[in-house]
Design brief:
Length: 133
């Protein structure tokens, strides 16, 4: 979604460069996410707990459906798009590629229950990350 590559191309990079297993089960933690994004020319921050949507950088992975006892969850991709037509205008949405959710829930715009979630910020290599406050 953010690298300009297909999921098949990303998977092949993960298998060939990062020793990602060809067949599951597998789980990507913070260091594996950072390594994969680096292969795609992106930088990942460490996990950070947030209290409001303005704490999220313009591009981030949000950890949702986290199970404390198993220490696993899944990620959705958050993006804050700045409007070019009107200064100060921003559209915030998250993409949820899970096959387990209804197609109508794959694009989220409601972040009222975001407090307490954990995020990994993402930005291009050789650029400075931006966060709105």
């Amino acid at each position: 979604m953010i690298s300009g590559k297909t999921i098949e191309q990303v998977r092949e990079i993960a298998i060939s460069k990062l020793r990602h297993p060809e067949r599951g089960p597998y789980y990507y933690g913070e260091s594996q996410i950072a390594a994969l994004l680096a292969q795609l020319g992106l930088v990942a921050t460490v996990y950070k707990q947030i209290s409001k949507v303005s704490d999220i950088p313009d591009l981030a992975l949000i950890l949702i459906e986290f199970h404390e006892d198993m220490q696993v969850g899944r990620h959705i991709l958050f993006h804050r798009a700045r409007g070019s037509h009107a200064p100060g205008t921003a559209i915030e949405y998250a993409l949820d590629p899970s096959l387990g959710c209804k197609p109508s829930d794959r694009i989220r715009t409601n972040f009222k229950n975001i407090a307490g979630h954990w995020i990994i910020g993402i930005h291009a290599m050789n650029t400075k990350a931006t966060a709105s406050k």
